[in-house]
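Record type: monomer structure entry
Structure origin: computed from sequence
Chain ID: A
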Amino acid sequence: MVITPFLSFGQSQKTDSLKENYTQNKQPSTAIELAEIFTLTNTDSALYFLQQVDKRSLSEVDRIHFEKVKGRFFTVTSQYDSAVLVYTGLLRILEGKPEHIGLEADILDNIGGVYLTLRENDQSLDFINRAKKIREENRLASELYKSHYSLGNFLFRTGKSREAVDNYRKSLTLLNEKSDINFQANLNYMMGTAYNILKQNDSSIYFLLKAKTIYDQTNQVVSQINTANSIAQAMINEQRFSEAIPLLENNIKLLASNGDWQKYMAAYSQLSKAYEGLEDYKNALAYQKLRYDTVVGFLAKQRTESVAKITEDYRTDKQLDEAEETAIWATQRAKIFGGIAIGLIMLLIISYLLFLRTIQRKKLENLRAMVLGEENERKRVAKDLHDGIGVLLTSVKMRLSNFEDKVEDKDAFQNSLGQIDNACSEVRRISHNMVPASLSKLGLEEAMLDLFDNVTASSQIEIQEKLSYEEGDFEESSEVLIYRVIQELVNNTLKYAQASSIQIEMKKIKDEYIIEYKDNGIGFDKTKVKNGIGLKSIASRIDILKGKLTFDSTEGNGVSFKINIPLQHG
């Protein structure tokens, strides 16, 4: 495959030409093409052009192209639920149209990729295999490289890097001249990343450099930064410190426009290691200090940003755990600095400990604010539903009733009134689910009993409860959190467990409440769901309550949860 060295310039010319064409003619197809180009480089511009498209005026071909680009945009901007909705809608459009069978396989792969990002591994593999089956049954041999790439991504994300490399290699051998250049870049990047995991640094650097060449030419700044960081890490592993430093210093320049504090932190950490490898301890310690200053600075500026992203990535950054060891190792070799180096180490250790305390405090503060803000929004929406739409529907029914004598078809008229009654009931049901009235009026225990009554009335599940709660032990906001935890556990049982019974007990022992929850469903493999969205929601609420969550399950033997929540003394 030959990559033209003037790709970036040529692509820029094409973009300028399309923008000029769109300014003059306002063609929807041109707006869609511009949105597709900007999705990888400037999501704000991509969104602007997507919003200019009037779907009512689109031909079938343009409609399909529009939905495909919109799905890609939602994926790139991490709006995964919206992406899946768009892609599944597009599958319905393509259904029964043999001329679009290849595109149908592509969309299935895209959905599989979204579910893989969400760690819904079983669903991800199902969509990927469906795409592969379509290509095999319809003899789309020239497109099988896409299936091997998707399977490689699945294997890589599930910890099977060796099998992932095998599939990436198959994908590389099947690439053809029509293969999208961005696909080639991504394939080389994933191949290099997999080799990095396997500690095969030379192979890793080779494929990552190929990916970086394309990302540089197409001006994909985020991909440039990520790839350069990976190359630098492999070079540091190979003790090629002098080669790694220019890559990382260039990343710092690129980050001036990107502003991602986590990437700053990674770059500073690797620069510190590279200078340490060169025995330049002054620069090594300087970059280590910049690393901490950068993290603290960004946290201070972004208090309102989602704490899930800030803290989750921080916890998975193993390099932070090595900070003290790195500093101590550096000073042992830096004898020339003597007492000065020891003082710097102590400063770093103190900063590190203070930093950990700050992170934990900010995590709980921001997480509590986010969850309670969500509850307030639920209350607002529930009130709007009940007082707005509910009242409006009742008013409509009353006005219609005045015309009953003037209507010839009495049965149809009564049927219409019945549908309005059903709508009113549905509004009340949704409003109640969002904010149970019994929680604020009667307290936590009654709200939980009300929840169980609704479940048993609408399903075949038997609930055996034993609740002992003293009203006033928790403030109202904490009671809401406890209720949501129980509600999420019950919802998970209803959705996934195929259970016939639930047992739940809540009791007070000394200065804490213990909640034990069990069902007799099909259970699950803990290793596959420990990071699932449902469990994260439960765990985050228990964190706010300063509680402890443990659970156990095996496939076929149901699930059991134990939650310890300490009393919150004023």
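Annotation 1: Residues 1-10, 302-324 have pLDDT under 50 and may be disordered.
Annotation 2: The chain is about 70% helix and 5% strand.
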